[in-house]
Specification:
With 133 residues, this protein is mainly α. The protein folds into two domains: 48 residues; 62 residues, no CATH class. Helix content is 66%, strand content 0%. It is built from six helices and no strands. Helix 5 packs across helix 6.
Length: 133
């Protein structure tokens, strides 16, 4: 990347999204059997890093299902985590088409928070019952 360009931080705009999509599709047509070179994309997309381009593409633009997880997907994620608590988010996302590792991670973190709040509520209820008896 050219050193005299400043890197844009923050949200992407519609024009940047369209340009990124166009450049990725162009790259895929030129090199159909290769992994996308995000360094190459960075050089074409000005003011964004290769990491920003890759994350925008994989988490927001490319075949991403942003609707809420279905009950089946949620139970599948929970079961996979139960079977192997250290399974990477990427491996779970590979089994759920249209879902990104970021979606999986956010679901797991939300579930952990719900679980902690539930445990706290139970403890509080138990302490109130103990005091009243």
């Amino acid at each position: 990347m050219n050193d005299n360009l400043t890197i844009t931080k923050g949200p992407w705009n519609k024009l940047e999204d369209e340009r990124l999509s166009r450049e990725v599709e162009k790259y895929k047509s030129l090199y159909p059997n290769q992994q996308i070179s995000w360094k190459y994309i960075e050089e074409v997309i000005e003011n964004r890093t290769s990491k920003q381009c890759r994350e925008r593409w994989t988490n927001h633009l490319y075949n991403v299902n942003k609707s809420p997880l279905t009950a089946e997907e949620e139970s599948y994620i929970i079961q996979m985590r139960k079977d192997d608590p250290n399974i990477p988010y990427v491996q779970i996302a590979e089994k759920l088409p249209g879902r990104t590792p970021l979606i999986i991670k956010n679901f797991i973190y939300r579930e952990r928070i719900k679980e902690r709040k539930s445990i706290l509520r139970i403890r509080q209820m138990m302490s109130v019952k103990y005091i009243n008896n």
